Amino acid sequence: MTDKRVYYFGNNKAEGSASDKYLLGGKGANLHEMTNLGLPVPPGFTVTTNVCKEYYEVGERFPAGLEDEMRGALQKMEETLGRKFGDAANPLLVSVRSGAAFSMPGMMDTVLNLGLNDETAKGMAKLTNNERFVYDSYRRFIAMFGDVVLGMKPTSKHEPDPFEVALSKKKRDRGVELDSDLDGAALKELVDEYKALIRELTPHQFPQDPWQQLNAAVGAVFRSWNNPRAQTYRALNGIPSHLGTAVNVQAMVFGNMGNDCATGVAFTRDPSTGEKRFFGEYLINAQGEDVVAGIRTPQTINVSGPGIDPETTLERKMPELYRELDGFRRKLEAHYKDMQDMEFTIQEGRLWLLQTRNGKRTAPAAVRIAVEMVHEGMIDKKTAVMRVSPAQIDQLLHPMLDPKAQRTVVAKGLPASPGAATGRIVFSADEAEARGRKNERVILVRVETSPEDVHGMHYAVGILTSRGGMTSHAAVVARGMGRPCVVGCGEVSIDYASGTMTARGHKLRENDLVTLDGTTGEIMLGEVATVQAGGSASFDELMTWVDEFRRLKVRTNVDTPEDAVIARRFGAEGIGLCRTEHMFFQADRILAMREMILADSETGRRTALAKIAPMQRGDFEGIFKAMDGLPVTIRLLDPPLHEFLPHEEADIRAVADALGRDIQVVRAKKDALHEFNPMLGLRGCRLGIVHAEIYEMQVRAILEAAVHMQKQGVRVIPEIMIPLISEPRELQRLRAVVEKVAKAVFDEQSASVEFRIGTMIEIPRAALLSAEIAKHADFYSFGTNDLTQMTFGLSRDDAGSFLPGYVEQSLLDEDPFQVLDQDGVGALVKFACEHGRKAKPQLKLGICGEHGGEPKSVEFCHRTGLDYVSCSPFRVPIARMAAAQAVLRETK
Amino acid sequence: MTDKRVYYFGNNKAEGSASDKYLLGGKGANLHEMTNLGLPVPPGFTVTTNVCKEYYEVGERFPAGLEDEMRGALQKMEETLGRKFGDAANPLLVSVRSGAAFSMPGMMDTVLNLGLNDETAKGMAKLTNNERFVYDSYRRFIAMFGDVVLGMKPTSKHEPDPFEVALSKKKRDRGVELDSDLDGAALKELVDEYKALIRELTPHQFPQDPWQQLNAAVGAVFRSWNNPRAQTYRALNGIPSHLGTAVNVQAMVFGNMGNDCATGVAFTRDPSTGEKRFFGEYLINAQGEDVVAGIRTPQTINVSGPGIDPETTLERKMPELYRELDGFRRKLEAHYKDMQDMEFTIQEGRLWLLQTRNGKRTAPAAVRIAVEMVHEGMIDKKTAVMRVSPAQIDQLLHPMLDPKAQRTVVAKGLPASPGAATGRIVFSADEAEARGRKNERVILVRVETSPEDVHGMHYAVGILTSRGGMTSHAAVVARGMGRPCVVGCGEVSIDYASGTMTARGHKLRENDLVTLDGTTGEIMLGEVATVQAGGSASFDELMTWVDEFRRLKVRTNVDTPEDAVIARRFGAEGIGLCRTEHMFFQADRILAMREMILADSETGRRTALAKIAPMQRGDFEGIFKAMDGLPVTIRLLDPPLHEFLPHEEADIRAVADALGRDIQVVRAKKDALHEFNPMLGLRGCRLGIVHAEIYEMQVRAILEAAVHMQKQGVRVIPEIMIPLISEPRELQRLRAVVEKVAKAVFDEQSASVEFRIGTMIEIPRAALLSAEIAKHADFYSFGTNDLTQMTFGLSRDDAGSFLPGYVEQSLLDEDPFQVLDQDGVGALVKFACEHGRKAKPQLKLGICGEHGGEPKSVEFCHRTGLDYVSCSPFRVPIARMAAAQAVLRETK
Prior knowledge:
Number of strands of chain A: 32
Structural class of chain A: alpha/beta
Strand content of chain A: 15-25%
Largest sheet of chain A: 8 strands, mixed
Shape of chain A: elongated
Distance between the termini of chain A: 25 Å
Largest interface: A-B, 48 and 48 residues
Helix content of chain A: 40-55%
Oligomer: homodimer
């Protein structure tokens, strides 16, 4: 720990620099950096983050010697500015702001105008000849001091702030509407009233001594590091608590002293589009917060778009200062080599920079700026790739709500599949299909969805469920389809019988128009305007760089040739998971499937399966063709058979009639197949063991399709995947079945194809016995959805009742169905990889759970040495980006 | 590998001994040992197990030199007996028998009377003057040769054996009923017909050359080592396949050559009671298989019980030989230091011993023999403890079916809780209770049971379910109660509506009398006589030795003071698992529980809980008192709340009425609480997180009870156990809740008790994060039931549809709910122990899953270094025995 506690900046010379982020905080480090660059930054000093730690170590008190160092730095400020702290004639006022190494916007506290007291206020009023300005500043300071330092800030939105109450009363008494309508005398009265409030509501007096004010404010900022909001924010964003915050004490400058004053925010490039042009907004005679709070509408600094009156721009009104600002803009961007978000204030004709930081930007802007900066020679490709977050890639590929549009939110659920959609409510999949086919835009609203709803989901523009989590059926299928989807929306209560849903007191009926935002999870009344995002030349170029860097392959989870084509367009390098069960739900097969389930003998089952076989073969042919030259991993039947039987009495009757069976037989079968915990029941390879004929039919269909397509010149690379292995002998047995069928098919066809046999690792025991299982497997695909369920003892369909609360209360860092749990599930994945590779070095390793498209999880897969990740088509570009960034982060 | 392939025995001198079990097989080693002891064993030789391996290595052929060694040994036999192999005048006949290191009864093949051919048969007939005897032996030899050597043995019971067919035909033709009624001429004809059958049905001729016969028979025995039956038996019994079998070639002796001949089986002590007296059965003029097959009723060798005519005994009929036999009996038992099962044959007034081995015995006999042999100075206590298997301890504590009783088995399920019971069928728990209260003996028959059935199970004498596995609710509760129980009996089809059950075509109605055997899983019509087993002075003495040796403590899983008293009597050293949920099902509490569940607010829930609190406190007081001085681990509420709500419409209405709530509310709550996979849902500590008030009430009840009982002089050692932890922060949070309540209670009561806070490890992730979880735990209790379910991805309630098949087909060695899966689940247990102890060396470790009473699992717990196991009261003695044997096996 360095001994120096206070770092001075001012007069083009600072004791710190941008590289001192951990010591001086992000904001502080940039103030020092800008000062060194010769930019006009009001002088000040930074109390280091180490002092924050000391503060807590010695029991929330100033460590000895700190005040002396602060006094020394303040003296330098006084010398630089020719004003004196606490001097009645020419007082120096300061701001006191927090500033940690990582941005925690709005979490910690700030005090402005510090140094004002009854004496200095009088002096200032004389000096500026602007009593109104001075007492407005003074009353604001007292209020901030009361709130921040003396703990008078209300803890909830519902409690009134006593200072606000007094202000409102004053306006009423004076018969005015706006704060700015109050004159100097009224504000002077308010100052006294504010001081009285402090006396009444706290055991303290408002201190007149500026040093007492300053010490108290610095201590308050340190304490704000540990306020509950800040703690929660850090927990959520993975910011270590031991870092502490720095405190920046800086000379005040004022944009609200008259018409030669102004304040504004500017971006070095357009943050919406990324276009290389100066973009900013400002207000004459205003304070920084006025721009943000939106009480007055700010003007643009230049003619940056249609409909702007040139006369209102800073460029026209203060051309010299504008030109100066533009110069700073170029200097800052060239220096930081990234788009900057600058705060400036003009006080009495002099331009000050108060802050610079990397600017927030939309996804399209992020891509364009990164790519253009490479073209400009400003950054290299690696830096460009690191500049665009995977989440931004996600945004790019889905329509978004127009951020400016008005909306009435009536419910909020889990943001399961990004993008926005507006449509009319329907409550059944059949209705959704019927109306979707007529090109009507419908939102399918269900308590939850099942495979029987897939056809309706396909025809809906958006999906809403009141139950289920981020990997619920609805969520998975919707993401696969790229359909906006909100799930687990407990605020919505659905009544199928009456065809209504209720949300926050609004009763909505079938056919009512709603909008849902799958990016935020919000449900809104009526139509809300959307903007279409999408690819661009910049995007394409960026993605070629991404592919240059990454080591991890990215495959996709698709079940149909059509989706395979889409996924390939998104850059998929094969299919990592082709689920065969969805194929059985199509109208022409479900009956044969049900016949198979109801059959009393193996012969009966084989007869029924023989009807499905040619259709399955056709499915696989289409997929092999779409994936010409790329590997296709096909999972054999996985779900429990009861999923294929109807549950409603009418449907049961229909099935019985169609198959010419007694309804009692169908009902009895349904009951016999019922399971208490289907997740842990007769499914996956257990079906293949009990009814080998099902897997035999599927393997035959796959390999006949492969041989057939190969004869037509398609390069087929089939990988047959056996699900739900928990014991090596299961895989050994089923591998033999697959090989037996393969031999038969190749003999019959007088041809053969290369193929692999592998397994999902989705049961903890399979991971634990990896060394044995690897002996019978050519590849592993980690089914991290089920592996998460079993490792956590957590059903994804049921966890909605408590899992969100767990994350809110920081009992878990994240929903483990969204972000792979590296401590538990990840430990099993790692163990299985290490032991599997030791037993069989050429073992191919991949992941096909939903985590395969989630950036942090992709990075984990990279570090763990997997060969590929596989995810839904729309997440393929996200995974590519995450995989590239994982490499770059590693080499850094 | 030794070079010597053939070991001779004969004339009181053998080349091997009892210690050569692996080389000569168990049977062979004992033949050598008996020969060396000077006992009259027919001479012979043993071909070693190594030759079996060689036989397979060289491609199922005799290794070079083997025949020469065999010829040498046979020559010695000829010299000893003065007969010659293949000699027409005075032929030597031999038996050829398998004999592996471990007994595999009936799995491999035997050929008798080898050496007979057309010539030697004629010679024998002249020599013995008994043509009938000789041709009967000859035709039996040909049939065995055909079956065993030439592969004519039918592969299923439904196929006819051609030799049996010919024999039957012969009897019909001659108009006789018994084999023994056929005369020499008829048997001579049969010999020719048998030879013709071999010619017709195989490509071979029956060989006349005795050496060709012998070589073929020895090879056939080697091949029988790998027949499917033998392979399956080895897989099931964990016998390594590489051991191979030895072959014993021994001179034939005949007990069926006339009235100076006999054959019999004798035990050195009574195998039923263990009493120290000579016990055996014999037949004059008979073959060994006649005694076994039960065609003739054998006589006892002495007056060993009431109703025996002394004139029929061997003791009276052949007093010299009996005395000789009794001498051998003493010699053998003194030599082997265990009760022996001897086979003897008397040929023409001369006594031969054909086999000795440790005798099978009933459980009471095992205990008595072991204890008395210690008293006799024959063995030490350690040996005595190793002589009684834990399964025998189990048998001792439950009534058993009388082995001699007639029975009609109509179904077979899983043997879930041992013991036999006869009673009248009832189909509902209420009915069971109503009639049980009137002291009627009823069998409760359900598809499955739930906590709502517990009161009825308590009043039933036995329980039968058509669904569920060995750890299903019915099985667990029944074992806990010591009630005989058969579960997962799929052959039984139950129709509640008509009050009938169907099994193997029998339709049974309510009130019909049935008997079930929880030790075998069989269901029988009507009453079948039972015998009461139980403790004894010998048993008590043995168990004190057991307790001297074991390190592992044994606790019990009980929920009531009554059961606690029983468990203590069985030797329980504390409670390892007290489930609190069963307490809520009692009539006086379930309503308050339901009121709590239906409450709309925390306040409402607290009000309802306050009604339950005093009753809970009373429960715990009783348990603390019963367990004075011993630790009591109490698990906080674990099952999902929906288990406490009724499911039938009428019951829902009743609850709504009782609580004065709208039926819609009750129904809606039931629906809202419904879960797809309740095993993985909102239960265990998740309930405690979501509704802290429930756990607060329980902790308060526990500690108030503890303080109260302590004031009354009871030594209380409460351990509060939090279930279903998957994340360290859950335990951290709930530990704080427990400590807060404890402080409040101790302050209020001005007293405190020592107590521990711990957790179940029952979710894989908890085991994986043990190093972190241990920081917040004073103890771990492994809940291996749930840990098995999640590690295997296997619901114990649903696994019945395929798990038995897995075990039958050797896809799994055992049902993992019965025997702890050491490879997977055990690996997690071990990992959690190691990492937990590393983080906290004083961490107490136990297991409270059903495996805690299963011997192999107990041994695993011992080896893994757990502090205790906990199991249902009736399994406590089993666990004590297994724990002691684990120590003794380790030191061996």
